[in-house]
Every structure is written in C-alpha cells, then in structure tokens.
Amino acid sequence: MLSLLTYAKTYKKELILGPFFKLLEAILELLLPLYMAKLIDEGIKSGDTQQTIKMAMMMLFMSLIGLVCVIICQYYAARASQGFGTELRHHLMKKINALSHSELDAYGTSTLITRMTNDINQLQLALAMLIRLVIRAPFLSIGSIIMAFYIDTTMGIIFIITIPIFSLILWVIMKKTVPLFKRVQQKIDALNETLKETLQGVRVIRSFSKQPQSEKVFDTVSDDLATSYQNVSNLSALLSPITGLIMNGAIVFILSAGSFQVNTGHLSSGEVVALINYMTQMLLALIVVSNLVVIFTKAFASATRVEEMLETQPDIVTTEKEIDDSWENTPLVSFNNVSFQYPLSRGYALKQINFQLKKGETLGIIGPTGSGKTTIAELINRSYDISNGEMTLNGIASFNYPTGKLRQHLGIVPQKSTLFSGTIKSNLLMGNPDATEEMCYSALELAQCLEFVTALPEKLDAPVLANGNNFSGGQKQRLCLARAIIKSPDLLLLDDSLSALDYQTDWLIRKQLRSVLPDMTTIIISQRLSSIKQADHILVLDNGKQVGLGTHDELMKSSDIYQQIAAAQDEKEVH
Ligand SMILES: Nc1ncnc2c1ncn2[C@@H]1O[C@H](COP(=O)(O)OP(=O)(O)OP(=O)(O)O)[C@@H](O)[C@H]1O
C-alpha cells in the first residue's frame, strides 16, 4: 500500500503542512480542559468574575485558532487526496492501455471499472484521513493520558488500563473484517458485470421477453452484495457501542473515584471536570482510530487490487529499437509457418499459416465461422503475439516492431462496429487528429456514407450516442470504414466489416478504394465470395488450417472447400 504513496509525491507540501496544522489544533484542544479547570477552580468557585472572563476569553481565542488550523488542514487534505487519486487513475489508465487483449480478457471489464472508480475513491479517502486524523487521533489519545497523569497518577492509571482492552477489541474486529471487505469488492465486480451485460443486451432481453429472468439474475447478485455488506456492517457496527461502553464505564469510575478524592481534598472539582474532558477526548480519539482502522482496512483491500494492476507486466513487449518504418519493403506482410494458440485455450486457433503480400496487393481471407480469420487480423495488429513461426511486417519480425509505430500504419475496421459518444467528426478524428473537414468529407465519400451524413442537419457535428446506437448497423460499418481510411493507412484490414451492407454498396466501396487508393495494401476478411473474388491472393481457412491459397480461378480448380463455398453462395443467390 505504501508503494502507492509515490503517486502523491507532488503533494509533499500538503502532506507535511496538513498534519502540522492538525497537530497545532490538537495541542490547543489538549490545553482547553486545563483552562476549564482553572475557570472553575480560580474563577467560578472563588467568585472571581475577572478571572472567569479572562479564562473564558482565552478558551474562545484558542478555539478560534483551532478552527483556522482545521480549515487549513482540510484544504491541504482535499488538494492532496484529489490530486493523488487523479494521478493514480492516470497511471492505471495508461497501464490498461498497455495491456494485451488476453490480459484484458483475463481481468474483465467490470473489475477494471471498479478498480478505477471505487478502489481509487477508497484510497483517496484513506489519504485524506491520513492527513487529517492519523497524527491528531493518536496524539490526542496519548496527550490525554499524559495530562491525566499530570493531574493525578491514580486517574492516569485508569486511562492506561482502558488502552489494551480497547486495542484487543480493535484487533479482533479488524482481523475478521479484512477478508470480508475483500469479498465485498468481488461482489461489486460481479454486480457491475451483470449490470453491464444486462444493459448491453437490453434490446435482446426485451425481444425475447426475458425481463423477469434478467431481473431475477440481477436480484440474486444484488442480494449477494447486500448480504456481504451486511456481514461487514454488523461487525463494524459493534465497534462504536463497545468502545462507548468501555469509555463510559471509565467515566463513571472517574466520577465516583474523583468525588471521593474531592471530598478528601486530593483533587479539585475543576480537575475532575478536566479529567472527564480528557477521558471524552480520548474516547472520541479512539473511536476515530477505530473508524480509521475500518477506512484503512478497506483501502488496504483496494490498494492490493490497484497494485496488482499496476504491477502487471504487459505480455506484448514493445522494443524501442530504431527500425525501418518506410512500409516500402517486399514482402510487406509475410506469414511463415505461423501458428497461434489463445492464452487459456486448449488447441491452436491457427496452424502453420503461410502467405506473402506485396505493397498495393489485396488479400482475401475466407473460411467457415471460427476458422481463424479474425485471429489473423489480431496477430497483424499485435493484439496477441504469434506462438510459433515468423510474421514479418515491412520486412521486420513482428516481435521487433513497436506496437505504437506499427499501429500508425494500420487501418482496422473490426467485425463489431464500435463508435464512441461524441460527434461524427470526433469519431473520424480518432483516425487522424489533423484531418481537415475536406478530408473528413472525402473519407465519408469513399466509405459511401456522404449521402446520409450530409442529410443530417448538423452534418459532421451530428451527435453519436454511446456505441453509435443512433445509427443502423450498415451506417455504423461505413462510419468505421471512413475512420480507418482517413488516416491513409499503409495496410487496411477489413474484418467482415462490410457484411451489413447490400452487395451493390459493398462492391462500390471496393471499386472506389481500388481507384482512389491504388497503393494501399488491403486484407479483406469476408464470408462473401463476391467481396474477395477480385483479390490478388485468397487464403482459405478451415478450422485454423490453411486449406488453399491462390487467385479465384486457381482455387476454383484446386480447393474443394473454396468450390463448396462458391457453390453454396451461387445457390443462395439463385434462391
Ligand atoms: N479471445 C479468445 N480466447 C480464446 N479463444 C478464442 C478467442 N477468440 C477466438 N477464439 C477461438 O479461436 C478460433 C478462431 O476464431 P476467429 O474469431 O479467428 O474465427 P473467425 O474465422 O474470424 O470466425 P467468424 O467468421 O465467426 O468471425 C475459434 O475457435 C474461437 O473460439
């Protein structure tokens, strides 16, 4: 947990001055009961009005100074804790962006969200409390004991006896709550996961009228979280009454022993009032300590989860070597006996794949569902690294190609169209932040979406809802294509990304791409033969194996599977 404090290093001043001002306030608070005793013994009891007013004014003045110190401390605590949280979130986001797809799959989206929000909030709270209370509370507890000894040794011993009893109770409760807090965090992850799935699939759930079942699943997960919270709360709730019981018992003892000592002349009544004040101060300080224990227990569980992420070493290693970044080399893309196995999966998704692609050429990839087509795109993008064989891009072995540089040359249109909330323009600028309006319109024209975008009243500034939910499947695909084209990539990868379009639009897009960007190397993954028929090379996959490579005419003679696909699609077109 301490290692995370490095993210607060820019707030050294706040981390030192915050506790310092709180300490000043605690010293003043510790002196107040002494003045109270003087006010009673030397002022009220002796009927000395001047001394009473003097002491009262002194107490008021000290309280006002204390108030100023508290305000300054709160300010520093807020600055440091919020700044620390922001810094931590920034580094966590950076780490998430550096993780490979397999690592992200292993964590899951929900836990990433919980760690980014709930866990960092807990850590922010812990830092604020550290500044505000971690010195003040023990200082007040110890100071109260010293002041009690200063007034009367016997009374000081009563203060001392309460400490180990209290600490034992704290220790027992803490030992039991730490694992429960960890469980609560896991349940929050589970709730987020269910919520995410339900919201993402809300249309499907409604279309199948499965709302009652979906609510039942949600209720189960929600009840589970409530039960875990209840278990923790039941234990934590024991803290206040137990500490209150012990301390109030001690006050009763002070009162009875004190009244006896007042009668024998060993203590003044003002000193008994001061002792009760010190006992109350210690009581409150110890309750604060117990609350701090709860806050730090939660923060400890959160810190472990945040540290785990920050310490994860991305399995896609990128070197910073100087490389030839020209994308003029031949072959531009080469697979040499490439095999690949997804982490945690049993078999190979791709086995011994071989093909070469020159600049400006087009490769079509076809094959039944699950045959490994998307996996090839994932390997080229270095979302995953190959397991065996050799893959070169621009003549450089993939392992040596820094991912950041590599991806600048790629334009990928994924199978699942993903748009982000904002405007059409903001989505296009993701492809090329420097693109002018003219470039935006040219890309939209190439992707055959100029017509529907210009028909919108706001045109390029038309709003895009989260996931592009205000556009049709085909419109989303074309906007994603425009986003990829606008960066003028050296290699365009279309992963079944024109499937929602009619044959005419699909054909028009390919024709336009060929005539406007003749030098662009393209890989078209498709289930439709018509989309890849014209390609310079066609790779046929079946169950991860390469079962054909050639032109359409060659494959029509040599590949059984290709012939079967052609026959099936011909038949479909006839029907
Ligand atoms: N993230 C993953 N983890 C484990 N296995 C995966 C993962 N993604 C895909 N696979 C498996 O790898 C194989 C190839 O999947 P891939 O997505 O490449 O097929 P595809 O030919 O693109 O299929 P489709 O035409 O349906 O999109 C499948 O058996 C699939 O179950």
TrEMBL record:
It comes from Candidatus Vagococcus giribetii. This is ABC transporter ATP-binding protein. PANTHER family: ATP-BINDING CASSETTE SUB-FAMILY B MEMBER 10, MITOCHONDRIAL, ATP-DEPENDENT PERMEASE MDL1, MITOCHONDRIAL. Residues 16-298 form the ABC transmembrane type-1 domain. The chain crosses the membrane at residues 15-36, 56-77, 125-151, 157-174, 238-258, 278-301. It is a multi-pass membrane protein. Residues 333-568 form the ABC transporter domain. InterPro entries: AAA+_ATPase, ABC1_TM_dom, ABC1_TM_sf, ABC_transporter-like_ATP-bd, ABC_transporter-like_CS, P-loop_NTPase, Type_1_exporter. It is found in: Cell membrane.
